[in-house]
Each structure stands twice: as structure tokens, then as C-alpha cells.
Amino acid sequence: MSEIALFGNPNTGKTSLFNHLTGSYEYVGNWTGVTVEKKVGLLRDKKNHLIDLPGIYSLKPLSSDEDVATLFLLNEKFSKILNIIDASQLERNLHLTIQLLEFAKPMIIGLNMIDVSNQRGIKINETKLSELLGVSIFPIVARSGKGCKELLNSLDSNTSKNIESFKIDYGSILENKIEELSKLLPSNLNISKRWLAIQYFEGNEQVKKYLQSFIPENCLQEIYLDTEKQLITTEALSSLTKFIHNKRHQHIKKITSQILVKTKTTKPTFTDRLDNIVTNKVLGIPIFLTLLYITFMLTFDWLGFPLADILDGFISGPLTNWIMALLGLIGASAFLESLVIDGIIAGVGGVLVFVPQIFILFFAISLLEDSGYMARVAMVMDKLMEKVGLNGKAFIPMIIGFGCNVPGVMAARTIEQPKERLLTTLLTPFMSCSARLPVYALFVGAFFVKYQAFVVLSLYVLGIVIALILARIFSSVLLKNETSVFIIELPPYRVPQIRTLFRSTWDKGKGFIRKAGTIIFAGSVLIWLLSYSGPSGFDVPMNESFLAMIGGIIAPLFTPLGFGTWQAGAGLLTGFLAKEVIISTMSIIYFVPEANLQAFMATQFTPLSAFSFMVFVLLYVPCLATVVVIQKELNSKKWMAFSVFISFFIAYVLSFLIYQGGKLIGF
Amino acid sequence: MVLTDLKQGDTAIITDLSKVNILVQQRLMHMGMIEGVQVVTKRSMPFGGPLFLESHGQNISIRRNEASRIRVEQL
After folding, report:
1. Surface of A (384-423) touching B: CB under 8 A
2. How far apart are CA A17 and CA A11, in angstroms?
3. Of A107, A104, A108, A106, whose CA–CA distance to A191 is shortest?
4. What is the distance between the alpha carbons of residues A346 and A315, in angstroms, rounded to a whole number?
5. Does residue A112 sit in helix, strand or coil?
6. Where in chain A is the domain with CATH 1.10.287.1770?
7. Which structural domain range is residue B33 located in?
8. In contact, A41 and A416? CB cutoff 8 Å
9. Searching chain B, which residue's CA lies closest to the CA of residue A282?
10. What is the pLDDT of residue A154?
């Protein structure tokens, strides 16, 4: 079995094609950079693997998701390249194609969106294009899967050969230098030397690092500067990068002049008409806020809440009764019965109740991503983000972070400017992820029945406000010497396909269910065991259990915040594993008949201390998975520790102010 | 004149990009926006927010301060 690498510009339908060719799923992103990792799928004919790489404009990386593609070419083994090209943006796409052709591996091209380009009055002579580039070309419509079968069959055939024939003449000066550099490289390299040389001259940092393992740095530098000097004096150009780009551009123009036929002039598209409304000067921001509000109300109030209620009724009613009956039937011991009912059902069930709400939220986020609206949000919010030293693109990781902080942190990779990326990574965990939602739901249900939605909304807003304030402080104090930049492509709107949307939602949501079966299950058993046993043996009163002892040790720390009980302490401690575990712990600790739960909690919390507790849970530390991903993304233990420390500090100070301040004004 | 001098809906040809931030310049290049290419200002975001530009059928957005460093010739 061999590996085929899928390359293409962002927003060309690359992920749709991947799904059609492999059948295994992976979500479709409409904003630049949803596919941030190397993903592998088995082709439908089960003969080869297809590797999905991040969408890139050029092999010369600008952001860290683009590094992935270049590093792949330099270091990985694969047999063939599949290049997807957006027919309606042919010129731009061909820049990448040429760089891939220069890599000189077998290659096949999928010419996508021929339907769109036809609508826009562009006809492409595919046979001629194939002739000019020297590779086979298959017209496809990736969204519907049209033409994908033929493409799949050709991927398997071994007819495709290395393309040695393709060559752009970069002019005698550069060609000589390419030759000179190639001669310095060892003869047994299995990467095209010409490609390495061209990429180096273009300014590809990853290729430069690679070359440094063969050629001394000063020698490399010398060739580069000498070439640039010669070209600047003879060609009157500002840089080598630009020179190479221009040469390619001329070549592309020559190609397109032979294969493009414009059939009619274009009229305003659906995208133009929709953009007139949603990016309208006056309406843009209100429309975005309204959409967020609708999402929020759907999740909590209109749809999510009643569904969660039904599920809760089922788990604590019929399901518990059935399991009790079953346990009675097999004559289970009191220990086992307590473990199952008080531990597992209370702990895992307490979290599973929130599955409907979490799926609604993920559905809404998928809808924003797949439609192409996300890029508009970045544009609409850019001015606000600029004020705090970030750019509009940073808003996207934050919105994704509302679903789960882990993909949110990873989405920060598409930000070009290193400083802004660092800040976005550090601040995304302040977005209230769906795992924190169960905690709010339990507390607002007990203390703020009348103002449920309002109280929860205030927590979401608080997370955003804190993140923005911190961004402002960090960008002006810690990292002040870099300018902020913003540039984003606004892809055409696409009506999301229902099937894609559901699978995308499922893909995001299944992690939550998996967590319920693993971490939360294990955590529930452990917590129950700690609450069931104590120094004096098993089946002790809860207050004399090990759990009470452990929670009691850290409880005094939280007394000034209004929740210095061992129950709260134990919940917060276990909540580091995953925020939902807080609710598992509380469900186990407060396991009392439904009717008494609220009365019981009222003995432990006042409305004020309950709010202070929720604020603390919102901010205190990112969960274990998020901390790990922050460390990986920033490649720095220092910043990871900083992230944990700063969030705990802010949570503590803010909860303290809320509780003590609230008491002063008489709550 | 520079790009920010254009009114909504005006078309112009880019004549000089060299003063633009290098990261933005390279991205613009990736998206095919180089000297000699036509560009239309479609609208701008409120409170001095970014510009919404169109160039041969693709839409992009850049900040006003970067746009003011792009020299253009109105058509």
C-alpha cells in the first residue's frame, strides 16, 4: 500500500474531495485552515492511503499550519501527489501546482468546481491544460462527488510517471545559481535538487533549515545575497521572492491565455448579495451578535433545556429503576449496588444529561464553519480585536473554543503573526467550553431559576471580556515590539450539506461521549470509592470519608470566595481532569432524591457564593487536555505554566471581589 | 492615489505594493493581488475597520492602514 498526498489551496473543496475519495470522515472547513493536522484516510478501493494536508497558497510557509505541508514534502515518504485546483480561481491555484510540479513526483490534478466556473462564464480546455502541464487532469465536482470515481481509478493505476519534463526558465542568472547550489548537494538525495534550490531562493525557511544540514550557513547565505544582488541590478526588482513569483506568473499567464475561454460577463452572485447584508456597515455587528444570541438561546432555553430535562427524567427515573431491579435480580451486594447507583449512574449520568445541549452547540459551530460565515466574523470583529492588540482571525479560535478549548487552541495556528498566535492560544481557554455548561446548569437550576439564561449568558460574556482585557494588557506589556497584521480571504458562501453538517457535529461531539465512557467513568468510580470509604472503613458517613478529608485540606483556601466546603474543594480538584467531572463529583456527593437536591445545596451555597463558584469554575485552570495541547502548540513549558497560573490567579481574584463585594452591598 | 482614496464600488489597478507590511504583501501575492491587477473596493467596516476588496472574483479583507500603503491608479 502506498501513500498519496493531497495538496491544494484553502477553500478549494479539498476536504470534500478527501471525504468522497476515502469514505472515512473528516470535517469540511470553509474558512482557511480548518484542516490543521495531517490526516490519513483509506481510499474507497482500499488500495492506497490518502493524506490530507492543510490548505496552502504556496509551499513557502507564512503560518505554522503551512509549515506542515513543506515539512511533509521534505521528510515523509509518499508515492504520488494529488493536487486539487479550483477552476474558478485558476491563476492563483496554478502557483501552487507549479511548485508541486517542480518537486518532480508523479502527480494527478483534480480540477474542482467546474460547475462554479461555468456559471461565472469561464470555460477551461482541460485537454490542453493537461498537455501544457504534462500531467493527467480530471474534472470533478467535489461537493457532489461527480467525477471522483474516475479520479479514484486513475490514482490506483501505475501509469503516472515522474514528471521531469516540466520546467520554467527562470532566466540565465537564476538558472546558473540553481545549478551552482544543486552541485553542492549530495548526489544521493531523493528530493529534487532543483526544487530545493528554487524554494531556497524563494525564501522558504524550512527548506533553508534542511539545506543547512549539507551546506554551511555562510556559504548558503553568500549564494543567496549574490543572486539577489545580480537580479536587482539587472532586473530592477525589489526581492528574489518577487522575481520568482513574477516568472511563474508570466508562465501561468501564457498557459491561461491558451486554455481559458470567457463565455459571458458575470452578474452579482449569491455571495455578493448575501455579503451586502451580513457585512453591511451598520448591520454587520448586530447580525453577528444576534446569531450568537440565537445559538445561545437554542442551546440553553428553547431547545436544549427541555431535551436535557427529558433525558434527565429518563436517567434518574426508568433507567435507574431498571438497573435497580436488575441488580436486585442478580442479588448484588450493597457495595455493588451503591457503586452502580450512587457512583456510576450519578457520575456518568449527571454528565450525559448534557449531551443534547452540547450537540446543539457543536451543530451551530459547524454551521458557522461550513457556510463560510466564519471568515466574515473575523472581518467584522477585526476593529475590536485590533484595539486589544490582536486581529480578527483570533476570534475564530475563540468561537470554536465555546465548543471545546482543545480544537480552539489548535485553530490559532492559522494566525500568521507569532505574537498574536501566542496570545490567542493563551486566551482561548477563557472561552466557556461546553464542558463547563453542566456546572452552570446545576447551579442556576438551584439558585437562579427565574434568571437562568441571563446568569449563564453573563458567564459567557465574562469569559470574553476577561480574554480581551488580558489581550490588551499582554500585548502592550509583554510583547510590545511586534505589529499586528490582518488579512483574510472571504470564501464564497456555500449552503452546507446536511450530511456533512451532521457528521461534522458528530465528529466534534463524540469526544464528549467518549470522555463520559472513559475519564468520567473512571473518575466517578474513584470519587465514589473515596466517598464510600474512610479511615474507619467502608460505608462511612460522607463527612467522614477520604473524599471529605482531601477536599477539606484545600477548602480553607476557598473560604474567602464563599465556598470553603470540602465538597466544593473536592469538585474543583477533580475538575482539572475534565470540567464535567466537577458535576460528576457533585452528583455523587449530593446524591439525594431529586426533590431534596436544591434544598440540600441551599445549605451549602447562597446565591452569591453559587455565582462566585460558577465564575471560579469558568476561569480557574484549563482542563488537562487543554493544558497538554497548549504545551504542544507553543512548544514551551514556561507558557503552559503561565497559562495555568494566570487563569488560577484571575479566577481567585475575581471570585474574591464578587463574593466580598456582593456581601458588602448586601446580597 | 492610494487604495483608501477610492470610493465604494470604484475600480483601480494596483501600481505599488512595496510599502505594505511584508507578511500582508506575501499573502496578497499568494492571492494573486500583485502590481498590475484590478481591484474593487466593495465596502468598509464601521469605526475605521478593515476594507472588503474584490480582485478577479475573489474577496479578501485587509486593514485600512495597510490599504493606505497600496498605491493604485483609478480606472
Report:
1. 386, 392, 416-417
2. 12
3. A104
4. 9
5. strand
6. 172-262
7. 3-74
8. no
9. B46
10. 87
User: Three-state SS across A250-287?
Assistant: HHHHHHHHHHEEECCCCCCCHHHHHHHHHCCCCCHHHH
As a whole number of angstroms, the distance between CA A384 and CA A376 comes to 14
Residues of chain B where predicted confidence (pLDDT) is lower than 50? none
- Binding-site positions of A read 8-15, 19, 22-23, 33-37, 52-55, 112-115
Question: How many degrees, rounded to 5, is the angle at CA A464 between CA A462 and CA A466?
Answer: 65
Note whether A524 and A344 are within 8 A (CB).
Answer: yes
Query: Residue for cell digits 490534478?
Result: A109
Contacts of B45 in chain A (CB under 8 A): 279, 281, 284, 379-380, 382-383
Adjacent-strand bridge partners of A34: none
Listed by number, the residues of chain A in 118-157 with a beta carbon closer than 8 Å to a beta carbon of chain B are: 120
Q: Which residues of A are documented as binding site for GTP? A: 8-15, 33-37, 52-55, 112-115
Residue range A97-112: average pLDDT?
94
Grid coordinates of A431: 472561552
Interatomic CA distance for residues A551 and A570, integer angstroms: 4
Cα separation, A462 vs A195, whole angstroms: 51
Q: What is the DSSP letter of A491?
A: P
CATH number at residue B57: 2.30.30.90
Q: Is the separation of the CB atoms in B29 and A245 below 8 Å? A: yes
Longest Cα–Cα distance in chain B: 30
- Among A104, A82, A99, A95, which Cα is nearest to A7's? A82
pLDDT per position as a tens digit, A305-337: 889 889 988 988 899 999 999 999 998 888 898
Per-residue pLDDT, averaged over A103-124, amounts to 86
Closest by CA position to A161, among listed A193, A136, A138, A132:
A136
Indicate the residue type of A236.
A
| Run of H or E including A391 | none
- Report the distance separating Cα A294 and Cα A303, nearest Å: 11
Cell for A379? 472581518
User: Cell 473518575 maps to which residue?
Assistant: A523
Count the neighbouring beta carbons within 10 Å of the beta carbon of residue A580.
Answer: 30
What residue type is A202 in one-letter code?
Answer: E
**Nearest by CB to A92, which of B32, B44, B47?**
B32
pLDDT in tens, A175-199: 999 999 999 999 888 899 999 999 9
* Of A108, A116, A69, A67, nearest in space to A90 by CA: A116
Set of cell numbers at residue A429: 481557554
Average pLDDT over residues A68-89: 90
Which range among A154-163, A232-241, B50-59 has the greatest average pLDDT?
Answer: B50-59
CATH 2.40.30.260 correct for A3-156: no
* Amino acid letter, A573: L
Contact list, B58 vs chain A (CB under 8 Å): 89, 92, 489
CA distance A89 to chain B (A): 8
Q: Would the pLDDT of A598 be above 80? A: no
- Amino acid letter, residue A3: E
C-alpha cell at B4: 483608501
* Cell (9 digits) for A537: 472503613
| CATH code, A172-262 | 1.10.287.1770
* Residue in A56, A486, A88, A115 with CA at minimum distance from that of residue B56: A88
Looking at residue A210, what is its pLDDT?
94
Interchain CB contact of B59 with A (< 8 Å) = yes
Q: Give residue A33's Cα distance to chain centre.
A: 8
Task: Report, as an integer, the average pLDDT of A1-22.
Answer: 87
Tally of structural domains, chain B = 1
C-alpha cell at A341: 447507583
